Amino acid sequence: MWPNREETDRLLDDARKGDVGAVDKLLAEFRDPLRRVIDLRLDPAIARRVDASDIVQDVLLEANQRLTDYLKKPDMPFHLWLRHLAQDRIIDTHRRHRLAQRRSVDREQAIARPAWADESSISLVAQLIDTEATPTSEAIRQELQHKLSTAIDQLSDDDREIILMRHHEALSNQETAAALNLTEAAASMRYLRALRRLRTVLVPDGGEPADGV
């Protein structure tokens, strides 16, 4: 889901040379990926009140303000740096809205995270429940999306986060390890354990789901 790495590096090099147009293009390339990162993590109740696009805009504004410092000392790949800024904004948004309007927000009916309703979600469920092929029936797709959403909500924050990073953001194990400040071996083990726990929730008895999906 992230822009091409070579193109990103080229734009970063141009930005170092003072090319304002390169900065604008660079940040524009990451608008949609950042929106996906935020959609995946924004609490559904708060998403009713806060437009994810506003959070994306805040992240890009902060990135623009801090880009010079980043270019002087790029301690991590650019996309990981941006998602780190996004994570901080998400945490701040949750904190502010939960503290300020806890009762009204918590009473609102939750809505499904739209980012789960995609092909990668279906592929993940199909893999975990050992289906021979990704289902194409719309009814089956909707059922699998519902099962996945329910199962994800039952995972711990750590398990949920690493599945989002590896499967929905398509981050490599190396990138995930860097983002979580883990060794690559530890990140790989955490991911495998999260997948096992997710499968246990999806298929509690270790076999196929009772309804045959």
What is the number of E strands? 0
Our measurement of the CA-to-CA distance between the termini, rounded to an integer number of angstroms, reads 28 Å
Subunit arrangement of the protein = single chain
Could you give the order of the helices and strands? Answer: HHHHHHHHHHHH
Weakly predicted, low-confidence segments: 105-114, 208-213
Structural Rg: 19 Å
CATH architectural arrangement of the largest domain: Orthogonal Bundle
CATH topology of the largest domain, which one? Answer: Rna Polymerase Sigma Factor, Chain: A
- Strand proportion, as a percent range, falls in under 5%
> What is the count of structural domains?
2
Largest sheet: none
| Top CATH class of the largest domain | Mainly Alpha
Total of DSSP H or I helical runs spanning 4+ residues: 12
Specify the CATH homologous superfamily of the largest domain.
RNA polymerase sigma factor, region 2, helix turn helix motif
Gross morphology? globular
Mean pLDDT: 81
Report what the structure shows.
The protein has 213 residues and is an all-alpha fold. It has 12 helices and no strands. The relative contact order is 0.10. The radius of gyration is 19 Å and the shape is globular. It is 71% helix and 0% strand. Helix 10 packs across helix 12. The C terminus is likely disordered. It has 2 domains: 103 residues, Orthogonal Bundle (Rna Polymerase Sigma Factor, Chain: A), CATH 1.10.1740; 89 residues, Butyryl-CoA Dehydrogenase, subunit A, domain 3 (Up-down Bundle), CATH 1.20.140.
